[in-house]
Inverse folding.
């Protein structure tokens, strides 16, 4: 029986197309370095988790990259806004027979395997598990069945997303995880565990 599945949303790491808000401070090349480090961190923290794992690429599926096909199945995100793409990803796995599905992004150096494992455990006794990001979004969402409402009418990328989502979950049993810092800006990067000084000593004084 298929039970637990982890969805990992990623962007293809292309110069000028990732971490654009961060790039405004440190430039496209350094932003790409940070994003590749984020991808590596996400891979390192997820590869040993005992569940089926799916990497959803935003544009092109890459066969030979850090996501070994021995541990990760590979899919492409659908079209539409972030909500539509997440909804479609959940729907595809529930249709495959999975009972507990969790989605994460690839934006957190604070993300740990133990947190994802805790989320799967909590999902057994809750309808929904959600982890708030410091910027007002969320970094993890776990569902037992698809819920189209929570993916609609959201201002994605703004500080309103988490609160608006929680309002939509008012009738369900929800587990809230720790609030974590996802990396969108240079201030986010400075507050993280990343050794950001290695990018450029000049940035240390900013």
């Amino acid at each position: 029986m298929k039970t637990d599945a982890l969805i990992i949303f990623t962007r293809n790491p292309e110069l000028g197309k990732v971490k654009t808000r961060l790039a405004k401070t440190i430039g496209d090349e350094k932003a790409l370095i940070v994003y590749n480090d984020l991808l590596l961190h996400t891979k390192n923290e997820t590869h040993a988790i005992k569940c089926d794992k799916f990497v959803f690429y935003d544009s092109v599926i890459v066969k030979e990259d850090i996501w070994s096909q021995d541990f990760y199945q590979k899919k492409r995100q659908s079209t539409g806004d972030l909500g539509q793409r997440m909804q479609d990803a959940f729907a595809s796995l529930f249709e495959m027979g999975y009972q507990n599905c969790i989605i994460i992004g690839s934006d957190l150096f604070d993300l740990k395997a133990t947190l994802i494992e805790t989320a799967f455990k909590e999902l057994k006794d809750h309808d929904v598990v959600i982890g708030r990001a410091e910027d007002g979004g969320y970094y993890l969402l776990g569902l037992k069945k698809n819920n189209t409402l929570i993916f609609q009418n959201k201002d994605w990328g703004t500080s309103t997303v988490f609160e608006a989502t929680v309002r939509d979950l008012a009738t369900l049993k929800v587990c809230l995880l720790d609030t974590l810092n996802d990396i969108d800006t240079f201030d986010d990067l400075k507050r993280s565990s990343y050794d950001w000084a290695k990018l450029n000593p000049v940035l240390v004084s900013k």
Q: What stands out?
A: Strands lie at 4-10, 52-57, 72-76, 100-104, 128-133, 138-143, 174-180.
